[in-house]
Amino acid sequence: xxxxxxxxxxxxxxxxxxxxxxxxxxxxxxxxxxxxxxxxxxxxxxxxxxxxxxxxxxxxxxxxxxxxxxxxxxxxxxxxxxxxxxxxxxxxxxxxxxxxxxxxxxxxxxxxxxxxxxxxxxxxxxxxxxxxxxxxxxxxxxxxxxxxxxxxxxxxxxxxxxxxxxxxxxxxxxxxxxxxxxxxxxxxxxxxxxxxxxxxxxxxxxxxxxxxxxxxxxxxxxxxxxxxxxxxxxxxxxxxxxxxxxxxxxxxxxxxxxxxxxxxxxxxxxxxxxxxxxxxxxxxxxxxxxxxxxxxxxxxxxxxxxxxxxxxxxxxxxxxxxxxxxxxxxxxxxxxxx
Length: 338
What we know:
2 domains, 7 helices
């Protein structure tokens, strides 16, 4: 009986090796370790598919020696393999769609000053965010796995349920940025650290009266351990000249934005089994104004994930930088944070 079982196991291992040989070019392209492949096959307690073996080896066995295992480290490794693949779009921040997003205090007054349709706005709308990034270098610059990236994030709030107006996009924010990311060889609490230095512009592309924009430089300090990540991102707003008159197309559209947005953002993410919990917040300790966002993603079916988002305070969007409200949305996450 033992010899029969041994023969079956050998046949299974041989069949998997033959199967893997058919995909050897793809495995080499993804830098999957041969030792990991053989070890996984020999120690497997159940039948594994090609995708199972690829996932185990690509995410566990090829972590560089200067990194500890963790969600951010795995993401950096995974993204580097497909960074220059023209058929792969690399996410930057979260990508999500909230078909239903309810606010307790929609900002009507700001629209009445321009086009008189503030009274037609309703508290329930749709919200979505799309965010991608593109690497700008192919070789290391200063340290291993560092890089310069161009990122672009777009957020929209859509009055899709309003009947009094033609269901417009109430607000859309555009955020291009250029940033440098480098893992650090500092591993407190046996975790990973990294630093990001960037320059970003954010605006809503509106005409005078509704126009909002600012430019910032920032430093983002990252820490991760296993399924937990922490981000502390202080920034400095690049000054703009004052307007000479109210509708002056030149000059600062929102000179007091730092009074509400503050000078930093703190964010955390924790992955527990198939659930991801996230928090981010900003605060101006002098004016005691700020805002926060809580998020929860959870599995639905296949790769589709559900997403619940709650925000409270100032600055959910540029048009609402000085308008406080609470908002609850539910929908779908196309990508997680980790």
